[in-house]
Amino acid sequence: ENDLINKGVKIFKNQTNWKIESNKKTIKLNDESYLNFGHIINCAGLQADKIAHKFEVGNQYFILPFKGIYWEVKNNFPFKINTNVYPVPDLNMPFLGVHFTPNCNIDQPTTIGPTANLALGRENYFGIKKIEPISSVKNISLLFNQYIKNKGNFRSYFHEQAFLSIQPFLLKEAQKLVPSIKAQNIKLSNKVGIRSQVFNREKGTLEDDFICLTEKESTHLLNVISPAFTASFAFADLVIERMKI
Fold first, then answer.
1. Cβ neighbours for 91, distance < 8 A, ≥ 6 positions apart
2. Residues of the chain above pLDDT 70, percent
3. How far is 43 from 230, CA to CA, in rounded Å?
4. Which residues are CB-contacts of 150 (< 8 A; sequence separation ≥ 6)?
5. CA angle 102, 181, 164 (to 5 degrees)
6. Which terminus of the chain is less hemmed in, N or C, by CB atoms within 10 Å?
7. Contact, 49 vs 198, CB < 8 A?
8. What is the separation of C-alpha 17 from the centre of its chain, rounded to a whole number of angstroms?
9. From CA 27, how far away is CA 109, in angstroms rounded?
């Protein structure tokens, strides 16, 4: 953050009630001050759909948050996993499945996961903190409907992913990639993530690719759920190419 500030970047925090002015070139901040812009890029993750809607863009999309719980490889495992280990992707599913991810810090453990269960709020990382009861009930109802109608092959997702938060089920998936790993070699990690999964109201399905919506004043990135893809220069180049400026 300090590096960005030193380069002239201005950071405005806790701006929960900001508004777009009618000219679509000005943002009114919480303290009644104004921020003018030429073109805005919305890459706000779990809040990206709400921001897009303020610009009257992508109203058919909204984010259905999925919580990812991780396990980690303990020091008693005799082998060091030094590279990412991924399953072969199922192109009919929007979720990758369990995989091994080493840490860039060699002193930190390799993680296994994540799971993908519905979060009870966009910021519901731990326990009952920041639960959103009304939206949670709506989301559960929506997913139940997805299961009954099996839209987007959702039933297969549920059967494959829903129980991975339970150690024996997760371990079974992990052993498909690293057969020698056992229950005594893993423990629950403190690492938790929430996936900004987009649901398409018009199609009635989960989106399985990133979405870039652009207009004259703004560009909105939704469903950008891969950390590696998000951090790539190629992705940044693609966004710049699609901006209508």
1. none
2. 98
3. 10
4. none
5. 80
6. N
7. yes
8. 23
9. 43
Sheet holding 218-222, edge to edge: 40-42, 218-222, 211-214
Q: What are 81-115's pLDDT values in tens digits?
A: 989 999 887 776 667 778 999 988 878 899 998 88
CA distance 177 to 95: 17
Asked if 214 contacts 242 with a C-beta cutoff of 8 angstroms, the reply is: yes
Q: How far apart are alpha carbons 44 and 220 in whole angstroms?
A: 9
pLDDT value, residue 175: 95
Between CA 194 and CA 208 the distance in angstroms is 16
Give the pLDDT confidence of 81-90 residue by residue, as tens digits. 989 999 887 7
Length of the chain: 245
DSSP symbols for 17-28: T-EE-TTSSEEE
Say if residue 194's pLDDT is above 80: yes
Backbone angles phi, psi at 197, to 5 degrees: -70, 130
SS3 145: helix
In the chain, pLDDT over 90 holds for what percent of residues? 53
